């Protein structure tokens, strides 16, 4: 409908919806009532007034969420890999038929979740993978849960008797013999963490014969020793990489690392192993849920 027909062509009729009135028609309604009626008529004649809501939601999902889901699906399927370029805001807006603001909102959300990195003047890229600590799992299980290929390099596997502080954390005499396992943990070919585990040599001495570079320590303890892991007490802080850690992780000496000390308990209520982990701060995120 043209503006002339909407406003009433000179000498013609006013049209509202499917109704026509002569231009000289006098209304017996109050001006305010006529104004409200005309406003409703205008809305009924322009169905596109409701279009933004239909554009924003499709199948019950906001448009920005649909964009995010599409990108995540490509990540999970391997179509997009760390470092790959993600479609620009303009391209996403064109593909999904949304505004630039909606596309920008979608990418901003993925960036907050650590899934993409946006670089001014360069574009948006798939972020390097990060490991989230929010459940007591072996490192192998954590990496697998993020869809990452995990491997370990055994640095050392020895029996020591000069770690009184560690022995105390395991509720053992200060001179107890302990199995000490130091491993470099990798995601793909990239070093992610250095973990050192301690266990009682009296109970787990046979571990020195295990292929701990290929098999999960948790798996060995549960299957070979019938140890049922219950919970862990953890101490978490930030520290800096010493020369040994820096060399293993491929980072600078003094670079920040996340340090997690775990006393892991069995279902019998006894600490079974103590773990000192040093994790690259640019590859790990600690998630904490708090309740009030």
């Amino acid at each position: 409908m043209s503006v002339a027909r909407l406003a009433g062509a000179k000498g013609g009729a006013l049209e509202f919806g499917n109704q026509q009135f002569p231009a000289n028609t006098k209304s017996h309604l109050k001006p305010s009532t006529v104004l409200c009626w005309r406003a409703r008529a205008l809305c009924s004649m322009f169905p596109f007034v409701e279009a933004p809501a239909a554009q924003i939601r499709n199948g019950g999902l906001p448009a920005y969420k649909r964009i995010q889901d599409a990108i995540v699906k490509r990540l999970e399927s391997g179509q997009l890999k760390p470092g790959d370029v993600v479609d620009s805001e303009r391209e996403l807006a064109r593909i999904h038929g949304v505004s630039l603001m909606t596309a920008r909102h979608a990418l901003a959300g993925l960036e907050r979740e650590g899934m993409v990195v946006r670089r001014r003047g360069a574009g948006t890229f798939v972020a390097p993978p990060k490991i989230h600590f929010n459940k007591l799992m072996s490192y192998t299980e954590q990496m697998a849960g993020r869809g990452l290929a995990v491997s370990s390099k055994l640095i050392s596997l020895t029996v020591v008797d000069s770690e009184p502080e560690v022995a105390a954390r395991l509720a053992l005499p200060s001179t107890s013999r302990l199995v000490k396992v130091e491993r470099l943990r990798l995601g793909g070919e990239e070093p992610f963490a250095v973990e050192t585990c301690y266990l009682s040599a009296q109970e787990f001495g046979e571990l020195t014969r295990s292929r701990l570079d290929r098999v999960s320590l948790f798996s060995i303890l549960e299957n070979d020793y019938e140890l049922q892991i219950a919970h862990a007490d953890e101490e978490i802080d930030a520290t800096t990489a010493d020369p040994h850690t820096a060399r293993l992780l491929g980072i600078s000496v003094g670079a920040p690392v996340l340090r997690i000390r775990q006393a892991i308990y069995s279902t019998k209520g006894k600490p079974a192993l103590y773990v000192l982990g040093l994790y690259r701060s640019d590859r790990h995120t600690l998630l904490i849920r708090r309740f009030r």
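The chain has three domains: 3-45, 52-126, 131-286. Residues 13 and 53 are 33 Å apart (CA to CA).
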